[in-house]
From TrEMBL:
It comes from the Eukaryota. GO terms for molecular function: SUMO polymer binding. It comes from Odontophorus gujanensis (marbled wood quail). This is SIMC1 protein. InterPro entries: ElonginBC-PRC2_ViralRestrict.
């Protein structure tokens, strides 16, 4: 299934458009997966990084009180850091910090998937255009929202930690501290 989804995204004339259509179909199913390990297995084994980006973007849009119209970029990922709440409903009882831990895990996965693959592999271009870009060794085009500063990152991380501290009302577990440091 993962291989078929990857082919469906990458051989289309517009990989960006096809990944949006496929993500629209898959997203309701992800919302109904009750166990974190199953959601992570699905997302981590996804062969199409562009499709993974779209699904994670939809998850974060779903969890924001005020969704944004920004295109997927580093600015949008910072927006998600500042505005996302617990991502999904849980059928099993888990500690509040574990919900925040999952949010940080998916935010890191989104950042890695966005930064490493769709940009580096020209996955926003059609297959024929992509071959030309690879042959020319062209650098991927950055989005307008990819120009962020260290200060932007520092402020968003600080705001996120403050918001999370209000919800948790206890010291952060080691896992949370490590994930925040990794994300930063």
């Amino acid at each position: 299934l993962q291989r078929m989804l990857s082919f469906a995204v990458e051989v289309d004339r517009s990989p960006n458009c096809s990944s949006c259509k496929i993500a629209d179909v898959i997203f309701p199913f992800i919302l109904n997966i009750p166990v974190r390990s199953q959601r992570e297995a699905l997302l981590n084994t996804m062969e199409s990084n562009l499709l993974r980006c779209k699904l994670l973007e939809m998850m974060f849009q779903h969890s924001c009180d005020v969704p944004t119209n920004l295109p997927l970029s580093l600015s949008k990922i910072l927006y998600f850091l500042g505005h996302s709440s617990v991502l999904l409903q849980y059928q099993d009882e888990v500690a509040t910090w574990q919900k925040w831990d999952e949010l940080l895990q998916y935010l890191s996965l989104l950042l890695l998937s966005y930064h490493t693959f769709p940009l580096a592999e020209h996955l926003r271009s059609s297959l024929s255009d992509r071959m030309d870009l690879i042959i020319q060794k062209a650098k991927p085009k950055l989005q307008d929202g990819d120009n962020i500063s260290q200060l932007d990152i520092q402020l968003k991380i600080k705001d996120f930690l403050g918001r999370m501290q209000q919800v948790l009302e206890q010291p952060f577990p080691v896992q949370i501290k490590e994930k925040v440091r990794m994300l930063k």
